[in-house]
């Protein structure tokens, strides 16, 4: 995640893109379940306490009616039972976010963007990172105030959120990919920090020293257990790795996402109601979802449907991009790789190796 002029995990993207199979089912497998704390609370609480817990957590969640905002101008749903989920990390510095590194940035942008594809069968998942500095064609969108934002070519992907909000980001991703998003999840910076602190930190293995004054990150090579503030700096760092662009940072974000899921899965949340509530509370307070996930009941049902997905089986790739020929500090979708990638996801088939190779690597 990052915050400069424009937004996102295996390579980079601030204003400097250049420099700047199904696995065998296992008993009680729990994957892709950051919302597991919600489930635990519902299972363990009882009577008036249960109602209070439910009401408290349920009231935290903010919902956006994506279907109403976009209308019928959308791709067809998958012909299978597969699911596509757009996950955004918001870099708003409002409220409690203001004290975080980079708190002098105005407005809010979608700093991290992941399109998660869960194929039919729910036994695996693929997370596609969209570099925030990718130049895209923004479709015409209806803003929150009811006005229309006209279509425009060659805009930075992460600028879409700040100009027109989450529904326009969903519409932009659908237009560029031809893939319909079934759900939308957004978590803000302060919520991300609180979630990591609630689970007691996340351990990552740093391959080489990282020193980034912009994010405040200073790590030697080797394993590190990061707290919330350190984790936020880790996923936002850019200048301390690779060529200093957003592409290098994407690799760190993907690494951290898998480490976070592994940590959640390893904890005995069902045996600790208090910890489960703390995690669920910190998560739901920072969540904005589509109207299909904007309640505890809906989130719980979705989490249960993901029981078969293990973090170890999740593939993380970056949307193949190339440096833009006009502005080398930006990237554009690389062809034919991007077309092959989106086609495989639309058809719920295996993504070919050729569709995972990106000309712009970020060093």
Description:
33% of the residues lie in helices and 21% in strands. It is globular, with a radius of gyration of 19 Å. The two termini are 18 Å apart. It has helices spanning 36-44, 47-60, 66-70, 159-164, 166-177, 189-198, 228-236, 246-266, 273-285, 296-305, 337-346; strands spanning 62-64, 83-90, 110-118, 125-129, 135-138, 141-142, 148-149, 152-156, 183-188, 202-206, 210-212, 217-219, 222-226, 287-290, 314-318, 321-323, 331-333. The protein is of the alpha+beta class. The chain has a 7-stranded mixed β-sheet with strand order 1-14-9-2-3-4-15, with helices on both faces. It has 11 helices and 17 strands.
List keywords for this structure.
globular, disordered N terminus, 363 residues, seven-stranded mixed sheet, alpha+beta
**Overall pLDDT score:** 78
Query: Structural class given helices, strands, pairing?
Result: alpha+beta
Number of strands: 17
> Can you tell me the residue ranges where pLDDT is under 50 for at least 5 consecutive residues?
1-47, 95-107
Helix content: 25-40%
Measured by DSSP, the beta-strand proportion falls in 15-25%
Task: Give the N-terminus to C-terminus distance in angstroms.
Answer: 18 Å
Shape: globular
Main beta sheet? 7 strands, mixed
Q: List the total number of helices.
A: 11
Order of helices and strands: HHEHEEEEEEEHHEHEEEEHHHEHEEEH
Strand order in the largest sheet:
1-14-9-2-3-4-15
Rg for CA atoms: 19 Å
